[in-house]
Write a structure and sequence with these properties.
Length: 123
C-alpha cells in the first residue's frame, strides 16, 4: 500500500485531493471507466473512522486531464479531484488517512491512499 502524503491543512476546512488514474487499458481514466467511488477517512492516532462517503463519479473524475492553479506538479494535469468536507479533518494537530476506492466497469476495485496532517492552532 503506497500512501501519498499531502501538504498540511487547516482543520475543519475543505480541500481537494488531486490525482491521476488510469483505466485497465493503460489510458487516463474517464467517467465511463468507473462505476463507483467510496471514501473512508480514518484518524491515524486512534484508528477511528471519521467519515465515509460515496461521491458521484461525475463529481470526482474528469473526462480530460485538468490543468489549473491547483496542480503544480507537472504539465499533464489531473483527472481526479475529490472535494473533501470540513468534517473529514476535524481536529488540529492530527493525521488522517483518506482511503479512496475506485470500482471500475471491468476488473477489480483499486485504491488510492492519502495522508493529510492538520495544523496546530497558531495563537
Amino acid at each position: 500500500m503506497q500512501i501519498i502524503d499531502l501538504e498540511p491543512v487547516v482543520p475543519t476546512t475543505g480541500f481537494y485531493i488531486l490525482s491521476r488514474i488510469k483505466n485497465r487499458a493503460g489510458n487516463w481514466a474517464v467517467q465511463s471507466d468507473i462505476t463507483s467511488i467510496s471514501v473512508r477517512v480514518v484518524d491515524e492516532a486512534t484508528n477511528e473512522l471519521v467519515s465515509t462517503s460515496s461521491p458521484a463519479v461525475a463529481d470526482v473524475v474528469s473526462n480530460t486531464l485538468q490543468l489549473d492553479g491547483r496542480w503544480p506538479k507537472d504539465k499533464l494535469g489531473y483527472n481526479v479531484a475529490y472535494p473533501t468536507a470540513a468534517a473529514e479533518t476535524p481536529e488540529p494537530n492530527a493525521s488522517y488517512l483518506f482511503k479512496i476506492k475506485f470500482t471500475p466497469v471491468t476488473g477489480a476495485p483499486f485504491f488510492e491512499y492519502y495522508r493529510v496532517r492538520t495544523l496546530a492552532p497558531a495563537f
